[in-house]
Design goal:
- With about 250 residues, the chain is of the alpha/beta class.
- It contains eleven helices and five strands; from the N terminus they run H-H-H-H-H-H-E-H-E-H-E-H-E-H-E-H.
- A five-stranded parallel sheet has the order 2-1-3-4-5, with helices on both faces.
- Helix 7 crosses helix 11.
- The longest helix is centred in the first third of the chain and has 21 residues.
Length: about 250
């Protein structure tokens, strides 16, 4: 490991070509840095790291939660410390999200649960620039048997339209900034009152729930500050059981 790696600094596009893994070990901060450095090189280099983790015996669920998610946080830290510019952060973020798309079919077959009849709408805040975390959460919900609609609204009008477009058992909103807090608090109250499902379950999460949960106290929704698997488990277990549909052909 180079001195730059030990200090947690980006070293530019050099690293991954000869990277090998032997035996299954936890995805720790050193492994996360390997992925981050690979993302600075290329999308293919990042894929090779994930393939190596799989050969090591890691499940995609563990790779998502303990590899890709903390890698995104690390890239954010490097940007905050002026070690990366916005353009590079955007490129790396797109690579991480592309990894989730690339492995989606395999992930959904890794530990699939029967369909539970529950429908979910997941939304970013209006005008959000990144949706990787929400996409990851949607994958875990799908794996758990939910029917999921994912929305990235560009403005408040589109946010309202997506919310009102169909029946949803639950709606989750990822909040990354404090730009729309007051607007969302008012808007969610209004939308819940006029929802197709008046008993719709609302929850909010995302970076703000982790960094400043007190700022979300005014939201008419439950604040979730857990990782994706824990969020899915908690929401799923707390939903009322769905009744099986009636077979009209048996009522003759």
């Amino acid at each position: 490991m180079t001195q730059a790696q030990r200090r947690g600094q980006p070293i530019g596009p050099r690293l991954v070509g000869g990277t090998t893994f032997s035996g299954k070990s936890a995805l720790d901060s050193a492994q996360v840095q390997v992925l981050a450095q690979a993302c600075l090189q290329s999308l293919d280099a990042a894929r090779q790291v994930v393939f190596g983790w799989q050969r090591q015996g890691q499940s995609l669920a563990d790779i998502y939660v303990h590899g890709i998610a903390p890698c995104a946080r690390l890239i954010g830290q490097w940007w905050s410390a002026d070690r990366l510019d916005f353009a590079m952060v955007s490129i790396v973020s797109s690579y991480l999200q592309q990894l989730l798309h690339d492995f989606s079919a395999e992930f959904l077959q890794e530990a699939p649960q029967p369909r539970n009849g529950l429908s979910l709408l997941l939304l970013t805040e209006p005008g959000a620039q990144h949706s990787m975390g929400l996409f990851m959460l949607s994958e875990f919900f799908k794996q758990a048997g939910w029917s999921v609609t994912l929305g990235v609204p560009q403005d408040v009008a589109e946010f309202k339209r997506l919310f009102q477009t169909d029946w949803f058992d639950a709606v989750g909103v990822s909040i990354s900034t404090d730009r729309h807090l007051d607007t969302l608090a008012t808007l969610l109250t209004q939308l819940k009152g006029s929802s197709v499902n008046l008993n719709v379950r609302l929850f909010v999460g995302g970076p703000m729930a982790l960094l400043e949960p007190s700022l979300l106290a005014a939201m008419p929704a439950e604040v979730v500050a857990q990782d994706a698997p824990a969020t899915v488990q908690w929401i799923t277990q707390s939903m009322p059981a769905k009744s099986a549909p009636v077979d009209d052909t048996q009522l003759v």
